[in-house]
Amino acid sequence: MEDRLITGVGVSPGVATGPVYVLHTELPEIAHRTIARDEAEAEVERLHEAVSDVRTELEALRERTRKRAGVEEAKIFSAQIAMLEDEQLLGDVRRLVRENQLTAERAFEFAVLELKELWAQSSSATLQQRTADLAGIQTRVLQALLGESLGDVLHEAGDRPAIVLTRELTPGLTVQLEQALVTGLASEHGTRSAHAAILARSLGMPCVMGLVGGIDRVKSGTTVILDGTRGMILIDPTDEEIQEAYVREGLRLELDQELETVVGLPSVTRDGSEVILRGNIDLPEEVTAAADHGAEGVGLLRTKFLVVGRTDLPGEDEQAEFFMRVGKSFSGYPVVIRSFDLGGDKFPAAFRAPPQSNPFLGWRAIRVSLDQPDIMRTQVRAMLRARASADIRLMLPLITQVEEVLRTREILEESIAELNAIGVPIGADLPVGIMVETPAAAMMVDELAKHSSFISVGTNDLTQYTLAVDRGNARLADRFTPLHPAVVRLLKRIVDCGVCRGLGVRLCAAIASEPLSTLLLLGLGYRVLSASPGALPLIRWIVRQIDISAAREAATQATEAATTSEVTAILEEHMGQYVDLDLLEAGRLPVV
Ligand code: PEP
Ligand code: MG
User: Fold this and answer.
1) Are 210 and 329 in a shared domain?
2) Which of 41-45, 378-382, 586-590 has the lowest mean pLDDT?
3) Do 94 and 185 reside in the same domain of the chain?
4) CA distance 413 to 425
5) Domain closes at, from 149, 184, 201
6) Distance in Å, CA 510 to ligand 1 centroid
């Protein structure tokens, strides 16, 4: 079966089976041709007509999206229209036509290429999305200029039920394919956060992205199973494999219905222990998703996106305004903001970091913010200002030394004095908590606790540093196991120490989105979990299914286990008393 399987990223759940249609949406070939000087204005006119035609197309797509998926999703097309009519872009195209005597097609192609190159230098997810959107617009404008139509290809793709496989899915393509007889979508590029992925989810179309080499391996007409939940396609499946896929899909739908039943209900175990569920927010768009899924505040606001993809650092006003906005969405609940966690694999231009041979063990996170104290100061001042109107809290990443907390507190005191001196309203008593995500912090948690307002465990890094396994190395993926007994024992030590010190101990990492780990964490004594917004309904449901007494027993056994498989088996055995494990497996969520 291995050789028939192509794995990617499941971005929209569901199963589809049938023949594949490979849709080639490569850009049309543009012949190099220069124009005479007196043809320039006619060329500019042609450009404007093409832009206007594409605008009409995009408006129709926006309207359809609004009806089928909702107002928020439709905004994707408003952003594309704005991108299409961007005066700087169009001005560049006109200049290339008039000064370099290029055809409108050639000039548009050049101008877009320049923009893409500029954006490609950034690792920002937002800019990557914008690049995908720009590619969609580019194809449409060039086709309009050349008098070609995407409609013909789509007609062919959609004249019988098929699974469409393409190099890159754009939002426009996704909506248009949804109109045709298309049952599933697959692409070589793209990730969960791509606009096309968001749309596929809203439209309920099973979709897998990131199928590297998919187009070379699957020819049009080949029958496949596309599994958008697990993120894979299986070529030439047997009847049995098709049947199995639909059984799993049935279970997933059953689980979905179960999750519907807990919307708005409290997260309390069967035997009455209350659990607080908060959201981890990576991107501003996730604020609404977390609030909609009943998050009682934000347990981890990653501020990385504020700096990635730009050449300057965001100022105090910009940060304060953003923090206030998030605070407003969670009125009455805490919003835990992590100071910049830069370094590791992400060093945006704004930091001008020296090359490091071992970035994960290098100049990262709190080390950067304290070595360049103005970075920390600006964030702290912005948080103090936002705390005037919301329950903002500061959390420090990658702590390994007590001095790091003490130094931050000094900056906090200085900032309070500075802002008071100039009469800026600020909130009192900004809590300063730490992330426990290194073995050093786990071992020193009792000392760190003396200077911290709260503790929040980050098992993504804690696992990486404890097991000496690079979390981003796909080759070591099967060794990256947060349920390794060493991590489990550290988790127990951390919560026990924190509770003894009378501190709130939380956890805000990927394992809080997983059912089995939830059982373990509750059993160990964690009562505040922060998970990715999409996982909150599942975790709420799990909490409501289980007894804390059984969770405790499972956790005790897990801390005595010798291997990861033993820990997993213990948790499965206890979970199996309450929940059908096949049901959980079928609804398995991608870990974010
Ligand atoms: C962690 O390390 O567990 C964590 C939550 O932080 P990040 O994943 O952003 O490094
Ligand atoms: Mg971390």
Assistant:
1) no
2) 586-590
3) no
4) 15
5) 149
6) 8
Say which ligand is closest to the CA of 482: 1
Q: Would you state the pLDDT for residue 70?
A: 80
Q: Residue 347: pLDDT band by 50, 70, 90 thresholds?
A: low
302 CA closest ligand 1 atom index: 9
Residue of 484, 497, 508, 574 marked catalytic = 508
Overall pTM > 0.70 = yes
Lowest mean pLDDT among 94-98, 392-396, 411-415: 94-98
- For residue 354, the 8-state DSSP code is P
Residue 305, in any domain of the structure: yes
Number of structural domains found in the chain: 3
Looking at residue 461, its pLDDT comes to 94
Looking at the CA of residue 300, tell me the nearest atom of ligand 1. 5
Q: Mark whether 195 is an active-site residue.
A: yes
Q: What is the pLDDT of residue 352?
A: 65
Q: Is 311 exposed, middle or buried (0-12, 13-18, 19+ CB in 10 A)?
A: exposed
| Ligand nearest, relative to CA of residue 302 | 1
Domain enclosing residue 170, as ranges = 2-24+157-251
User: Mean pLDDT over residues 199-220, rounded?
Assistant: 91
534-537 long-range contacts (CB < 8 A, ≥24 apart) are 534/289, 534/293, 534/589, 534/592, 535/589, 535/592, 536/277, 536/279, 536/290, 536/293, 536/294, 536/295, 537/259, 537/262, 537/263, 537/293, 537/294
Distance 400 CA to ligand 2 centre (A): 13
The 10s digit of each residue's pLDDT in 272-302 is 999 999 999 987 878 998 999 999 999 999 8
Note if 497 is an active site residue. no
Looking at all shown ligands, the one closest to residue 300's CA atom is 1
Rounded to the nearest whole angstrom, what is the distance from the C-alpha of residue 509 to the centroid of ligand 2?
8
Q: Give the distance (Å) from ligand 2 centre to CA of residue 458.
A: 6
Please tell me which residue in 189, 195, 484, 574 is annotated as part of the active site.
Answer: 195
Domain presence at residue 127: yes
Protein residue with its CA nearest to atom 6 in ligand 1: 458
In this structure, how many other beta carbons lie within 10 angstroms of the beta carbon of residue 125?
A: 18
What residues flank ligand 1, with Cβ below 6 Å?
A: 300, 302, 341, 437, 458-461, 508-509
Q: How far apart are CA 345 and CA 358, in angstroms?
A: 10
